[in-house]
Amino acid sequence: xxxxxxxxxxxxxxxxxxxxxxxxxxxxxxxxxxxxxxxxxxxxxxxxxxxxxxxxxxxxxxxxxxxxxxxxxxxxxxxxxxxxxxxxxxxxxxxxxxxxxxxxxxxxxxxxxxxxxxxxxxxxxxxxxxxxxxxxxxxxxxxxxxxxxxxxxxxxxxxxxxxxxxxxxxxxxxxxxxxxxxxxxxxxx
Length: 189
Prior knowledge:
There is one protein chain. By secondary structure, the chain is of the alpha+beta class. The chain has a single domain, classed as Alpha-D-Glucose-1,6-Bisphosphate, Chain A, domain 4 (2-Layer Sandwich). Helix content is 32%, strand content 38%. Strands 1, 2, 3, 4, 5, 6, 7 and 8 form an eight-stranded antiparallel beta sheet that branches. A hairpin with a 5-residue loop joins strand 6 (117-124) and strand 7 (130-140). It is globular, with a radius of gyration of 16 Å.
């Protein structure tokens, strides 16, 4: 597990990202979160929040997701800060926990861009402390209600993550709530 004391700089995180850019994914069920599958041997999470209604909200939600607003809402720094939402993009993220920053690398494995749905899924690289996939999808229903759903399957990938499993799961649940809150804030104006 990659940790640092104090806030790493964007340059530090970019150096980590470049070092791990070509690492393989750490799991085999690529795209399962977007297909509604629940691979065995993982913890599964699914959280949906209702945003507002209408075409304007849907457009704002798409832009917010493209600019990583959900992650900012969870206090997660994503590098590159302007990472494109496209298959193959690798990001390094850092999450502060009690003064320690946990770093994790993911690759975008699928993108949805349809008239009434937009989102993406990323999967963990072998350098990530967890193993699994997470998707972030915005949907506009026929009645124009707009929702944001985070779906994930994961399990610890390193011994320290297994040892801290209750804390890891609590952090995952908190992040899912905060992703939703970040999207609500980003689409409220």
